[in-house]
């Protein structure tokens, strides 16, 4: 128990981690945090993306699953090591609950920003409830744009947020990039070589990772374990 949050670790395939959260089904009135540890690698596509956005043959050859999540946004490559994946369950009626789906991200983005501040990263900013920042690739790759509550470091996105709701509460997916390298993800998307190069170049200036941003510091690079600890310390 962390203050009024119940913390658990969930180790399963990316599909299983997205499909259900048994503890919230059994007792939806409790605030929960799940530190998610995927046992495999998957391309996770958003609820509105066509399956054809992924090159199924390339994924099959690489032994990588294709998973659809029930929240919006673009494609994300999930591996056992990256990104840092933490889910949040907030019951309906909680003091931090908001009926406004966009505004509902605010408190969580603030907590993530506080966590990155604790880790000593410079230039941490939270996107407000207003229009975010879109790029040409936002609808294709999740980290290609910045939405409400999402967090950037020195102008480049590092934390992505998504949510799904039912009558009992809101399930937030949060992902913090450790090291940004889109090579494998782009190889698995159905793109021409020219498109792939353009996306890679376009994303280079809009996404970063906490390890990338902390490498070379006197205190050493940030670890994923430190990211999780800092977030737990920063939750209201």
Give an overview in words.
- The protein is built from eight helices and ten strands.
- It has a seven-stranded mixed sheet. A three-stranded mixed sheet has the order 4-3-5.
- Strand 3, helix 3 and strand 4 form a beta-alpha-beta unit.
- It has one domain: Bira Bifunctional Protein, Domain 2 (BirA Bifunctional Protein, domain 2, 2-Layer Sandwich), CATH 3.30.930.
- The protein is 28% helix and 24% strand.
- With 236 residues, it is α+β, with helices and mostly antiparallel strands.
Our count of helices gives: 8
Order of helices and strands: EHHEEHEEEHEEEEHHHH
Helical amount among residues, as a percent range?
Answer: 25-40%
Q: What's the Cα radius of gyration?
A: 17 Å
Instruction: Give the strand content.
Output: 15-25%
């Amino acid at each position: 128990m962390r203050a009024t949050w119940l913390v658990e670790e969930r180790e399963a395939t990316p599909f299983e981690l997205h499909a259900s959260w048994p503890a919230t089904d059994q007792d939806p009135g409790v605030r929960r945090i799940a530190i998610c540890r995927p046992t495999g690698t998957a391309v996770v596509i958003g609820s509105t993306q066509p399956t054809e956005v992924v090159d199924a043959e390339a994924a099959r050859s690489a032994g990588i699953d294709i998973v659809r999540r029930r929240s919006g946004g673009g494609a994300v490559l999930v591996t056992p090591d990256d990104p840092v994946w933490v889910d949040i369950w907030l019951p309906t009626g909680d003091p931090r609950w908001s009926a406004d789906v966009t505004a509902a991200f605010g408190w969580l983005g603030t907590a993530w920003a506080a966590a990155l501040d604790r880790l000593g990263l410079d230039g941490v900013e939270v996107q407000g409830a207003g229009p975010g920042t879109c790029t040409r690739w936002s609808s294709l790759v999740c980290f290609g744009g910045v939405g409400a509550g999402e967090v950037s470091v020195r102008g480049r996105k590092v934390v992505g947020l998504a949510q799904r709701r039912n009558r009992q509460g809101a399930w937030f997916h949060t992902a913090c990039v450790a090291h940004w390298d889109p090579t494998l993800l782009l190889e698995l998307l159905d793109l021409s070589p020219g498109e792939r190069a353009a996306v890679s170049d376009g994303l280079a200036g809009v996404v970063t990772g906490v390890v990338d941003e902390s490498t070379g510091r006197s205190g050493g690079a940030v670890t994923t374990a430190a990211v999780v600890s800092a977030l737990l310390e920063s939750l209201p």
